[in-house]
Amino acid sequence: MSAIEELDIGALIEKCVSGQRDAQKQLYMRYYTYGMGICMRYVNHEDEAISCFNDGMMRVFNNLHKFDQTKDFKPWLKTILIHTNLNYLRSMKNKPQSVELSIGINSNGKEEIISGLHYQDLLKVVQKLSTNYRTVFNLYVIDGYNHEEIAQKLNISASTSRSNLARAKARLRQLLNQSVTVNHG
Predict the structure, then answer these.
(1) What pTM does this model have?
(2) Is CATH 1.10.730.10 what the domain over 3-91 is classified as, yes or no?
(3) Which fold has domain 110-184?
(4) I want to staple 133 with a disulfide (CB 3.0 to 4.6 A). Which of 3, 26, 129, 141 is the partner?
(5) What is the 8-class DSSP label of residue 105?
(6) Residue 32, Cβ neighbours under 10 Å: how many?
(7) Largest Cα–Cα distance in the chain?
(8) pLDDT tens-digit profile of 137-165?
(9) Interhelix angle for 158-184 vs 119-126, to 10°?
(10) Would you call 136 helix, strand, or coil by DSSP?
(11) Residues 54-65: tens digit of each pLDDT
(12) Are the beta carbons of 6 and 23 closer than 8 angstroms?
């Protein structure tokens, strides 16, 4: 293992700020899986997630000198990646969106369905949601934002955020029930 790989995050950040390419590569690689996990929750395709992750990491490197090293790096990175994904989704608004589907609610066996799914399977189901539903779902359920914060970030009302979340959950139930029916006969 090279000396750069053994650096703690503080030392690695210092080397990145000073412009050392090997340190920048190490920081990128160290957080690639974590960052891609965040990006894949917001976009439909892996190539879009890679693009968002790369854009986010460029923002990280351009602003690393502003990072307060008395705080944890991961939450700072997560915030930048979420904002990068939201900016990407805003830029895609003019492109055709998914059509809203009618939603039937069936919550029987919900916990059993979810506990039987692997993360990748659940991610695939979440990605079937329309962009608006998926974004609100991720921000609220996964990333812990409240409806007022979501409304501000997405330029929608808090009631629209709550409505989109309710519809996203209902649609997820429907998709999970369909998945269980297909997989278990």
Answers:
(1) 0.69
(2) no
(3) Arc Repressor Mutant, subunit A (1.10.10)
(4) 129
(5) -
(6) 13
(7) 59
(8) 999 988 999 999 999 999 999 999 999 99
(9) 120
(10) helix
(11) 999 999 999 999
(12) no
